[in-house]
Design a protein that fits this description.
Radius of gyration: 24 Å
Number of strands: 0
Shape: globular
Helix content: over 70%
C-alpha cells in the first residue's frame, strides 16, 4: 500500500517535470536574434532553393541536377563536401588531443566550439553522401553487414565516419547536459571525455589517411603530378594545417559575431591561442611542402611542368602551400594576428584547390569531355553549408560553448522543486 502511495505521489512530480522540460525546449526554439540580417537574407533563399533541388534529385535521379556520368561518377559533392569538408573538420581531433592528452590547457577555451564545428561538419558533409549515392537507401549496408566488403577502403572509411561522429557527440555531450540542467549526466559524460578523445583521435587519423588511400585505386585516372603512393600521408598531414586554419578562421568570425556569448577566458586568451595554432600550422605546412617536393623529385615529374597542368600544379604548391607557410612563420614571429588570419584563409583555399585537383579537376584528365559541376550542384552544396552554419549559430546562442555554463533555467527549476 505504501508503494502504491509513493507511485501516486511521484506521478504529479513527473508530469510537472515533463511540462517544465517541454516549456524550456519550446522557449529555446524561439529566435533570439533579428530575423532580417544580411546573412539570413542570403542564406534563406539559397537553403529553400537547395531543398527544392534535393527533392528533384531524389525524385528524378542524379541526372536531373548533376553533370555526373559513367565516366565521372564522383563529382563536386564528393570532392568538396566530403573530401575537403573532412579535412576542414580536422581541428577537432587536434585540439582535443592537445588539451586532454598533452595537457595544453591554454587551448581549453576553444575545445567545445571546435568539437561542435567538427561534429556538424561530419554530420552535414558525410550526410551529403546520400545525395551522391545512386541508391542512397543502401548506405546502411556496411553497418548491418549486407555486402560488407571487408577488403574495401570505403568500408573502413564508412565505419570510421560513423564511430567518429558518435565520439564527437560524446565529447560535446557535457555541454548539452549542462544546457538541459542534467548535472548528474554531465558529471558522468565528463569522466568519459579522455577515453572518447583517444578513441576519436585514433579514428580520425585513420580515416583522414583513408580518404587518400581511396585514390590509390585510380592511378590511371589521376594526373601524375597529383598521384602518389604517399597520398594517405599527404591527406593526413594536410588535415593538420587545414584543421588548425579552420579553427583560426572560424574562431575569428565567432569572436566577432558572438561577442555577447564570450566569457573572460575566451576574450583574454584567444590571441595567444591563435598564435599557438599558427605555430602548429607552420610546422605542418613545411612538412607537407617537404613531402610534396620529395614526391615530385622521386617521381621524376620534371617533364610534366611544361604544359598547363604543370603551371596549375606550381600555382597550388607555391601560392597555396609555400606562401602561407612563410606567412604563418612571419606572423608568429612578429605576433601579427592579421597576417596569421590571412595565411589561414589562403591555406583553406589551398586545401580546397588540392582536394578538388585530386578528386575532380585532375581526375580523368585525359577525358575529351571533362566533368564540370552544374549550377544546381553548387547551389545544393551552398545550402548544406548554410544549414550547418544555422545549426552552429542556434547551438552557440543557447548552449555553453564559448563560456562556462551557469545553472540553466530548467536546472534551477528542478533543484528548486
Amino acid at each position: 500500500m505504501a508503494g502504491d502511495g509513493d507511485a501516486r505521489a511521484a506521478k504529479p512530480v513527473l508530469v510537472e517535470e515533463a511540462r517544465r522540460f517541454v516549456g524550456f525546449v519550446a522557449a529555446e526554439l524561439r529566435p533570439r536574434r533579428p530575423l532580417v540580417t544580411p546573412f539570413n537574407v542570403i542564406s534563406i533563399p539559397v537553403m529553400l532553393m537547395g531543398a527544392v533541388l534535393i527533392v528533384i534529385r531524389f525524385t528524378r535521379g542524379l541526372g536531373a541536377v548533376t553533370n555526373l556520368s559513367q565516366e565521372s561518377p564522383w563529382g563536386f559533392w564528393i570532392g568538396f563536401d566530403v573530401v575537403t569538408g573532412v579535412a576542414f573538420a580536422g581541428g577537432a581531433y587536434l585540439v582535443t588531443f592537445a588539451v586532454y592528452v598533452m595537457k595544453a590547457d591554454r587551448y581549453h577555451p576553444i575545445v567545445r566550439a571546435t568539437v561542435l564545428n567538427g561534429f556538424l561538419a561530419y554530420v552535414f558533409y558525410a550526410g551529403a553522401l546520400l545525395l551522391d549515392l545512386g541508391r542512397p537507401w543502401k548506405i546502411i549496408n556496411p553497418i548491418i553487414g549486407n555486402s560488407f566488403g571487408y577488403n574495401s577502403i570505403l568500408f573502413l572509411v564508412a565505419w570510421h565516419f560513423l564511430l567518429y561522429m558518435i565520439a564527437e557527440f560524446l565529447e560535446f555531450s557535457p555541454a548539452v547536459a549542462e544546457w538541459l540542467g542534467w548535472w548528474r549526466a554531465q558529471r558522468i559524460l565528463s569522466r568519459l571525455t579522455l577515453v572518447t578523445v583517444i578513441f576519436g583521435v585514433t579514428l580520425s587519423t585513420l580515416h583522414q589517411s583513408g580518404l587518400g588511400a581511396l585514390f590509390l585505386l585510380a592511378k590511371s585516372k589521376i594526373h601524375p603530378l597529383w598521384y602518389s603512393e604517399f597520398l594517405p600521408v599527404l591527406f593526413l598531414v594536410s588535415s593538420v594545417f587545414a584543421g588548425l586554419s579552420m579553427v583560426i578562421v572560424e574562431g575569428t568570425v565567432s569572436h566577432r559575431v558572438f561577442q555577447d556569448r564570450l566569457d573572460r577566458a575566451h576574450r583574454t586568451a584567444f590571441d595567444d591561442i591563435v598564435v599557438g595554432l599558427a605555430r602548429g600550422a607552420t610546422v605542418a605546412l613545411f612538412l607537407y611542402f617537404f613531402f610534396k617536393v620529395l614526391v615530385f623529385v622521386h617521381g621524376k615529374h620534371w617533364a610534366y611542368l611544361g604544359d598547363g597542368w604543370g603551371w596549375w600544379y606550381l600555382i597550388e604548391v607555391v601560392a597555396f602551400v609555400l606562401a602561407p607557410c612563410l606567412m604563418f612563420a612571419r606572423g608568429v614571429r612578429r605576433r601579427d594576428l592579421t597576417l596569421i588570419r590571412v595565411a589561414a584563409t589562403v591555406t583553406l583555399a589551398g586545401i580546397v584547390l588540392n582536394r578538388l585537383n585530386v578528386s575532380v579537376i585532375a581526375f580523368n584528365w585525359r577525358s575529351a569531355n571533362p566533368y564540370v559541376p552544374s549550377w544546381m550542384e553548387l547551389v545544393i552544396t551552398a545550402a548544406v553549408i548554410f544549414a550547418e552554419i544555422w545549426v552552429f549559430r542556434w547551438v552557440v546562442t543557447r548552449m555553453p560553448v564559448f563560456r562556462s555554463a551557469p545553472l540553466p533555467v530548467i536546472g534551477r527549476a528542478s533543484r528548486a522543486a
